[in-house]
Amino acid sequence: MTDRSLKIRGLVKEYKRGVPVLKGIDLDIAGEGITAIIGPSGTGKSTLIRCINRLVEPTAGQILFQGMDLARLKGAELRAARRRIGMVFQEYNLVERLTVMENLLSGRLGYVPGKPVLKGIDLDFDPTGVTAIIGPSGTGKSTLIRCINRLVQPTEGRILFNGQDLAMVGRRELRQARRRIGMVFQEYNLVERLTVMENLLCGRLGYVSPFKAWLRRFPQEDIDRAFELLDTVGLGTFAQVRADSLSGGQRQRVGIARAMMQQPELLLADEPTSSLDPKTSVEIMTLMRELSDRNRIPVILNIHNVPLAQRFADRIIGMSDGRVVYDGPADGIAEAHLKSIYGGQDWLH
Description:
With 349 residues, this protein is an alpha/beta fold. The protein has 12 helices and 12 strands. The chain folds into 3 domains: 6-82, 3-Layer(aba) Sandwich (Rossmann fold); 88-115, no CATH class; 129-348, Rossmann fold (3-Layer(aba) Sandwich). It has helices spanning 45-52, 75-82, 100-105, 141-148, 171-178, 196-201, 210-214, 220-232, 248-261, 278-295, 306-312, 335-342, and strands at residues 6-16, 19-29, 60-65, 68-69, 129-134, 160-161, 164-165, 181-184, 266-270, 298-302, 315-320, 323-329. It has a 6-stranded mixed sheet, with helices on both faces. A 4-stranded antiparallel sheet has the order 2-1-3-4, covered by helices on one side. The protein is globular, with a radius of gyration of 22 Å. The two termini are 42 Å apart.
């Protein structure tokens, strides 16, 4: 019988020379069962996982699996080893234009004609405040958020914003409208090889010519604002740090600051805390609440964590099966509402 145990010896990873993220990790993991790795953002959890299958290159140490040291394999041997190591990604990594079957065979989920994800949604949003959209997975929360700025094309209906129907505008008008709508992504969507400052300045790409953007010639007022936002999100000393060396919480702060670089009139957030630990989730929601209050802009976000929604939102919209089943103040949602949103009651206790 093949030994499926995993042994890690003296594992070190440095993204920046002399500043290790992993510091001599020694672990023995049995050939069966589930092992959970916990800890705050930035402590090395994802780096450890990604070192095992060499998506991140370890600096030193051994990764012993089925008689091989994965840390030493190259080329064909590494590819062969990876065939025996499955990986589920935080950001899904599906091929969006493919069917579920095609994704299982190589790659992603598509929308099915005749099977609506959103079913006649009618909503009015105030010009300020935080609105949280809650509901089970697959109920249309992310689709609703992404329809607003046309990252997903609505099948029918109207999306009225600043005197325009965003569902009907053409390419040029849509690009102009999107400059006024900030977006914070669940999977951060940073350019990994760029610095934090360069990622923030990406938020001004809609306002500068492609040639100037390519030369990285941004107006001084944009650079000054970027530094101010870095201070606001608590990353004032990270301007020249590459995005791929940041923790999840730090990446999300960069994503929020990049969205605010647009000087948006509306801020959307697609599950901004789903990949973060509890402490960092509270910090991110606190930041979004403060930015909404300080800049007097509406924030619309979808979120799975109901207590966080109740704590930080002014209004909660509960969705189930593509429809709105609750729309009211955050402090007004009760157990009966949650049962209608999520179904059943065992999960409440």
